[in-house]
Design goal:
A hairpin with a 2-residue loop joins strand 13 and strand 14. The protein is of the alpha+beta class and 330 residues long. The protein is built from 3 helices and 21 strands. Helix 2 runs antiparallel to helix 3. Among the domains are: 65 residues, OB fold (Dihydrolipoamide Acetyltransferase, E2P), CATH 2.40.50; 73 residues; 78 residues, Elongation Factor Tu (Ef-tu), domain 3, CATH 2.40.30. It has a 6-stranded antiparallel β-barrel with strand order 2-11-14-13-12-15. Strands 1, 16, 17, 18 and 21 form a 5-stranded antiparallel beta sheet that branches. Strands 3-10-8-5 form a 4-stranded antiparallel beta sheet, with no helix packed on it.
Length: 330
């Protein structure tokens, strides 16, 4: 009697294999390589600079009796940075005070003489000439007193100008003075960088025709990761100076958030320098194996390529592909 074996159920295996084939093919795509025009960017070094650098200067000569700031301090507009005293001004004010007291005594006597002459004239005891002389003496004394008080106000104002005030809000870059030092009028007491900072570029002369006010540039990440894509941000060209200095074009770039940078700190900036033809492929079309970069063609063959700059739309291919090649991506 022949024994019949149990039939094998192949349906699950067939369904799983078919699903695997469908799933594999559903993610596959074909891309035809085309040469496109891209904006070429050059990496240059920019320096962080304040938009305006202010100098707080001494308005009078004398000795510094107090200094209220040091390098790195943040000051408000009009803040008192230092006080300069001149002993000669104090002596002049004391001299004016004594002369004013003397003239005030003369004025009081002239006023009393005038009032007496006025009363005698009313009674008809004195003459009009003596009355006019008393009035003139009082007027001269009062005018001399007013002139002397004005001269004292000038000296008092000079003494008040010994207070060195901040010409604007910002951060103190340098304070090259100390208490007790003698300064001359116009000498710098402190240098202040305004709160608004810019990036100053110096480009080769051949790039002058590509730079325009309003152009968007890319600022690299701060520190040693300046070449990394992470941390990059955009800035805008504020002004391109019309003068070429030493074969360099100077331009200022406005970027938000430069307040925590050091003045003079350098960072990498990518600026537009024209357009050129390039091959750009999607990121998922490129894969790496054993330290070598490959792409897969439509016929299944692998091609070694040399990738270049990474852009938002894909990665640039420097060699290994040509216009019209069909790639397979997953």
């Amino acid at each position: 009697m022949r024994r019949h074996s149990k039939p094998i159920d192949l349906l699950p295996y067939v369904l799983s294999t078919f699903a695997e084939l469908i799933g594999t093919s559903s993610f596959a795509a074909e891309i035809t390589v085309r040469t496109m025009s891209v904006e070429d960017r050059k990496a240059v070094i920019a320096t962080v600079e304040p938009l305006h650098q202010l100098a707080a200067r001494a308005r009078i000569g004398g000795s510094i009796v107090s200094l209220g700031v040091k390098e790195g301090d943040v000051v408000a507009s009009g803040a008192k940075l230092a006080v300069i005293a001149d002993q000669k001004l104090l002596i002049q004010m004391q001299s004016f005070d004594q002369r004013i007291k003397s003239l005030q005594a003369q004025r009081d006597k002239a006023k009393a003489d005038f009032e007496r002459a006025q009363e005698l004239l009313r009674r008809g005891v004195t003459t009009k000439v003596l009355f006019d002389q008393a009035k003139t003496a009082l007027d001269v004394t009062e005018r001399n007193l007013a002139a002397l008080q004005s001269d004292r106000s000038v000296v008092e104002q000079q003494a008040a100008e010994g207070a060195v005030l901040a010409p604007g809000a910002g951060r103190v870059l340098s304070a090259p003075v100390s208490v007790g030092r003698v300064v001359m009028p116009g000498e710098t007491v402190a240098t202040i960088a305004e709160d608004r900072y810019i990036l100053r570029l110096q480009l080769p002369e051949r790039h002058a025709k590509f730079m325009r006010a309003g152009d968007v540039v890319t600022i690299g990440a701060r520190g040693s990761k300046g070449d990394a894509d992470e941390g990059r941000r955009d800035g805008r060209v504020h002004i391109v100076y019309p003068e070429i200095q030493g074969g360099r074009v100077i331009a200022d770039v406005e970027v938000k958030g430069l307040g925590d940078y050091f003045v003079g700190e350098r960072t990498r900036v990518f600026v537009p320098t024209g357009r050129r033809d390039a091959i750009i492929i999607p990121f998922d079309a490129l894969y790496r194996r054993a330290g070598v970069n490959y792409v897969r063609l439509q016929d299944g063959s692998e091609v070694v390529v040399q990738p270049g700059e990474r852009r938002p739309e894909g990665v640039e291919i420097l060699s290994g592909l040509r216009d019209g090649d069909v790639l397979e991506t997953k």
